[in-house]
Amino acid sequence: MAQADALGELLASKGAGLDHVIEKSYAPNTPERATVTAAYDQYFSEKIHIPMKIGGEEVNSQETATMHPPHDHKHSMGTYSLATEAHVEQAIAAALEARKTWALVPFAARAAVFLKAADLIAGPYRARIAAATMMAQSKTVHQAEIDSTCEFIDFLRFNVKFAEEIYQDQPTSSEGVWNHVHYRPLEGFIYAVSPFNFTAIAGNLSAAPALMGNTIVWKPSDHQMFSAKVIMDVFEEAGLPKGVINMINGDPDVQSIDFNVRLGRTGQSTLGAFAKHSTPTKSSF
């Protein structure tokens, strides 16, 4: 009961799930236009390297790939490390190890992490994540604002509201009988393969199951690595424990393998490692 009361107070103070975030105008001479322009110019003028994040640690590999804005193929934004099968195994092990403690963390504490992430995107990271989306996915400032800020913030806050409703959904009890459902995370780990076109979806595919106590191996699109790094920065600053979300960077090759779940588009070495942890079926994807 105390946990529920604490969460209720937290939600009330944040206004979580009560209203959608309203996008800013970015009209000429507005503060938000100046801020996002400065962030974009900084990103464009520098080259960065994006490592993998496994067990909360930066992990690099000998093989790298380059990043280029879709609207300026000749411009290099930097490089990112490519995962080998060994890195995937390492990420799986980190996720399974983190699950031992994360699954036991009270819902209110898990919710607080993602509500904090929403606040960071609404505040100090707003211009950064929008500018990164403009660079990585060639979106206009209005498209980036709707996607990477407003929609992503809504995802994080509404997820908490809806999760609270799920936990409160309990069977009817008759006199002298107390029926109760205990919701627990899935066995194993979640493998999240996100598309290139929406920063909000890329973040939410990991955030939603993590909120419910699961741990994640996340493979962002190779065409979205630049904004994927900002997502990981936000989660880490929000206090997400090490190993809950592990980011592995794969190449864009497609390999068809039989799985009991659809893994989708990822690197060949990545798929090979996951095949060891999956039960084959007769359905081919």
Q: Keywords for this structure?
A:
single chain; 3-stranded mixed β-sheet; 285 residues; mainly alpha; 3-stranded parallel β-sheet; Aldehyde Dehydrogenase, Chain A, domain 1; disordered C terminus; 48% helix
Topology:
Elements lengths: L1 H13 L16 H15 L2 E3 L1 E3 L2 E3 L4 E4 L10 E4 L3 H18 L4 H16 L3 H12 L3 H28 L21 E4 L5 H13 L4 E4 L5 H13 L7 E3 L20 H8 L10
Parallel strand pairs: 1-5, 6-7, 7-8
Antiparallel strand pairs: 2-3, 4-5
Helix pairs in contact: 1-4, 2-5, 3-9, 4-6, 5-6, 5-8, 6-7
Written account of the structure:
This protein has 285 residues and is mainly alpha-helical. The chain has a single domain (2-10, 50-171, 181-275), classed as Aldehyde Dehydrogenase, Chain A, domain 1. The protein is 48% helix and 10% strand. The chain is built from nine helices and eight strands. The chain has a three-stranded mixed beta sheet with strand order 1-5-4, covered by helices on one side. The longest helix has 28 residues, at 141-168. Residues 252-271 and 278-285 have low confidence and may be disordered.
